[in-house]
Amino acid sequence: MQKGRILNLCGGVYKVLLEDGSIISVKARGKLRYEKKYMVNEKSLSKKEVLTTVKNTPKVGDVGVIENGMIDHYLERKNEMVRPDIANVDQILLVFAAKEPDFSFYLLDLFLVNILKQNITPVIVISKIDKLNDNEFFELKSKLSYYENMGYKVLYVDSKHNKGIDDVREVLRGKITVLSGQTGAGKSTLINAVVPGFSLKTQEISQALGRGKHTTRETSLYPYLGGFIGDTPGFSKLDVLGISKDELASLFIDFNGYTCKFRDCNHTEGIKGCGIHLAVDSNKILRSRYESYNKMYKEILKKWKYLYQY
Ligand SMILES: Nc1nc2c(ncn2[C@@H]2O[C@H](COP(=O)(O)OP(=O)(O)OP(=O)(O)O)[C@@H](O)[C@H]2O)c(=O)[nH]1
Ligand SMILES: [Zn+2]
Question: Is the CB of 8 inside a 6 Å radius of any atom of ligand 1?
Fold first, then answer.
């Protein structure tokens, strides 16, 4: 029996990094492919109808257990991302430009909520700090210290002049990491500064892994400092659709330390005496966090109204 991390899947063939450092190409056993569940149609008992299709196949990021030259099963997953399709992601490097595009606290909060919902740890990386003057940098840093107090790592980089890059390398050590963030935030530039030669945009890795030039681009993990980096960035655009209004407050982890005397309070603006609102007024919760919460709450209501026409 051998065990290893799945780096890539292409045309049913898995590239697996074994514990001894070698990479092998294997297929998965038939039982790990799509599994169909049937139900009997009541009107015509002879006919079976497909009830559901369960996807039980190993994916990139899984630890596959290999027996007789095939992946027999994979170890229990810690989490799974859909875009990119990777299991067991430890952290998302959330790359946000200090400027160009302008820094948006709302967008940062929206990304954070989505990452927490997936049970993944975010690391906030502020790029293009060379574009700020000293005052602007100081102001942004002091506002972001609130996020550090929430327990998140916040790193500052200038990928053009190699500043802060070693800190990013340290964060990547031993972890499975995916980069995410707005378009134009500087994800590719950052990763190329961290791992010279790495490019999210070219097919270098694809070729190194033996894939043809013209095959469709699949997600791969690239081994780095005892961990792995996903070569396709995660969501760059997102919304609140997968989040219910009742769980939103729990995803604003800084709200958790405050109690609200009202039962079933949704903590939105305009509710007098709401404990969260009071914490904002006494500067314990950052006002922009509360504004983000209210905006997302409204967005969720709007989306659900539109979908279900009530
Ligand atoms: N001045 C400065 N410019 C940067 C920095 N990082 C990236 N840029 C520039 O910002 C632009 C966008 O950078 P990319 O690395 O392509 O951004 P990206 O996040 O990969 O963008 P998408 O592929 O659209 O998601 C490029 O013109 C980069 O040269 C930085 O630290 N400082
Ligand atoms: Zn409340």
Answer: no
Closest C-alpha residue for ligand 1 atom 15: 186
Measured CA to CA in angstroms, residue 199 lies from 13, 190, 205, 226 at distances of 23, 10, 8, 19
Res 34: pLDDT: 60
Write out the E strands in 140-279: 153-156, 176-180, 221-224, 227-230
Render 103-114 in DSSP notation, one character per residue. Answer: P-HHHHHHHHHH
The ipTM (two decimal places) reads 0.98
Domains of the chain are 2-74 (2.40.50), 91-230 (3.40.50.300), 245-308 (1.10.40)
Atom 32, ligand 1: which residue's CA is nearest? 128
Q: What ligand 1 atom has the least distance to the C-alpha of 181?
A: 19
Atom of ligand 1 nearest to the CA of 201: 23
Pocket lining: 159 vs ligand 1, CB cutoff 6 Å: yes
Question: How far, in Å, CA of 49 to CA of 144, rounded?
Answer: 54
What confidence tens digit (pLDDT) does each residue in 253-299 have?
A: 999 999 999 998 999 998 999 999 999 999 999 999 999 999 999 99
Question: Is 183 close to ligand 1, i.e. is its CB under 6 Å away?
Answer: yes
**Run of H or E residues at 116:** helix 105-117
Regarding the beta carbon of 189 and ligand 1, being less than 6 Å apart is answered: yes
Residue-wise pLDDT tens digits, 100-140: 999 999 999 999 999 998 889 999 999 999 999 999 999 99
Cα–Cα distance measured from residue 272 to residue 278, given in angstroms and rounded to the nearest whole number = 9
